[in-house]
Amino acid sequence: MSQYNSDSRRLITDNCPLTTHLYLAHKLLTFTLQQNQRMSSNSTVLSVLKLTASIMELHEENTFKIRAYQNAAIAIDKTPYPLEELSDEDLSALPDIGTSMGKKIREIIATGSLQELNDLLKTTPAGIIELFDLPGIGPKKIRTLWKELGIESTAQLLEACNTNQIANQKGFGEKTQENLRKAILFQQEHSKKLLIHEAQQKGQEVLSALEALINNASISWCGELYQQAEIVSSLDFIVATDHTVTTLNSIRAKFPADWDMAASTPFTLRGNEKTTGMPLTIRTCSLSSFESQRLLFSAENNHLRHAVSDKETFLDVCTNHPAQTEKELYTTAGSTFIPAECRVGHVEWELAQEQKIDQLITYKDLKGIFHNHSTYSDGIHTLEEMAQASIDQGWQYFGIADHSQTAFYANGLKEDRVLQQFAEIDQLNKKLAPFTIFKGIESDILNDGALDYEDHLLKQFDYVVASVHSNLKMDEEKAMSRLIKAIENPYTTMLGHMTGRLLLRREGYPLNTYKIIDACAANKVIIELNANPHRLDIDWRYLYYAEEKGVMISINPDAHEQAGVLDTHYGVIAGRKGGLLVSSTFNTLSLEEIKQYFTTNKK
């Protein structure tokens, strides 16, 4: 049984209006909501099992029991179908589950919790749970902070860091203290923000609820949601109505939010969304000004302030010229239409002037993807299942790049397993022809910049994605030296997730991105735009510079399951923001062009 629904997936390749790319986003969001609903039990079970193991370790429970929960969590994380659809026999037969753990999983599915966990939580300060979200600190260190220093919350931990109480504790030190302080501040700064895929899901929930409340009105996302920003800091909506007072009173009375009437106006409601605490703004406008007002409250200031004539900026056009559509506003400004996701004040006006907006990358231009994982390493689906997900997208090829041998935590491939995978790829290519699976690897960049295979094996891959996964705390000089050495390696085809950032979780390691791009240009190395919405790395703001230097960009989802291939969509949106053209996107090349590239560039 697979969670992958090829019919739903295929919707992503439908012809979509390039007016805003929101059609494509809606299709992806619809599928994601369906998948989340089907897999919600798995997510709940996984969270409860992981938390139970952590709390047990915090309380120094039996080591074997802790390991049983940890192993069960790993098994559930790799289960690609809804647990509630399994019989008790099939559930117990999953790796590291068994009859006893199977009963606990049934309890979680039925109640959303576990009595064993609830009992542990009764003797655990509530604020302690916050500490588990901090990177670089586990149950053992949390126990030390709790028992030795009486720290029971992130606020108390920050105070202890600021007063130098952590550095002298055994197992910590000044570096750990500073890293914890930075992590807490980073967490506080981003605590009420969502990544784009999460924000769109929440935004759709709010939109549906508002539509059910409002009669005789048009309503839409605006702001960062409409622009599809990679990080969303507020949920903004605009309502076109001829009955402003009635509409806002109805929303205020019936929609569950913490409204701030002091910050609101007769035309705008402001407050915070209940479940996320995110700022929530609902604006109203007349029916005739809906298009222009939505644009004004969604585009970046630098976009709006662009001079379209000696006398007017685009802001003036939007303010002074009535229009029935957004396209009319750009026509009035003497410009070709600029889609919503591109209105970021970067290079969009230059591209419009050069008549290149229609040359920006779109999802339908892609012919395949290269950074993906399977059950050979830490993926959920088999190599054939992952290839099938690409076939269902109408793509011509699929590149597998499982983790390399240094990534032991991700079941990285030793040489014998690489050769085993090669043999399976050869068989599948005969079976799936003309569709082609390319033999790749995500090779870890070691501390000194070397790749973690010998040359005799590296030369057998069609391509190598070189990525950093460990020792992310280097200073800029060491980090730069490490990456540039990897880029100069003759077997490096592609630089994976350049900065190692995880949006809203951790900053990237310190790099001079322009110099890294220069090094890739000099060594003819492709740069990955990692499309996973948690990464979106390389940052889109550097894409235009890469294009100027002649560096090709490959949009890859870093997919660990079939559903992950559609994350490519987020990479396309980021690429469009950065001015990425079809001609500069590696995976728009045809199958034959890719084969020729790999053959020509073979070391």
Write a structural description.
The chain has 603 residues and is an alpha/beta fold. The chain has helices at 6-10, 22-58, 63-77, 88-92, 98-111, 115-121, 128-131, 139-149, 154-162, 174-189, 196-213, 223-227, 244-254, 290-296, 301-304, 314-320, 326-332, 348-353, 383-392, 415-432, 455-458, 476-488, 513-523, 543-548, 568-577, 591-600, and strands at residues 194-195, 218-222, 231-232, 235-240, 257-259, 268-273, 279-285, 368-369, 397-400, 436-444, 463-467, 494-495, 526-530, 553-556. Strands 8-9-10-11-12-13-14 form a seven-stranded parallel β-sheet. Strands 2-4-7-6-5 form a five-stranded mixed β-sheet, sandwiched between helices. The protein has a two-stranded antiparallel ribbon with strand order 1-3. It starts with 5 loop residues before the first helix and ends with a helix.
Q: How many H/I helical runs?
A: 26
Strand order of the largest sheet: 8-9-10-11-12-13-14
Strand content: 5-15%
CATH architecture of one domain: Alpha-Beta Barrel
User: What is the CATH first-level class name of one domain?
Assistant: Alpha Beta
Helix content: 40-55%
Regions with pLDDT < 50 over 5+ consecutive residues?
A: 1-20
The separation of the N and C termini measures 41 Å
Largest sheet: 7 strands, parallel
Strand-pairing-aware structural class: alpha/beta
Question: Given the C-alpha coordinates, what overall shape results?
Answer: globular
Oligomer: single chain
CATH topology assignment of one domain: TIM Barrel
State the total count of DSSP E strands: 14
User: What integer is the average pLDDT?
Assistant: 90
In CATH, the homologous superfamily of one domain goes by the name Metal-dependent hydrolases
Radius of gyration: 26 Å
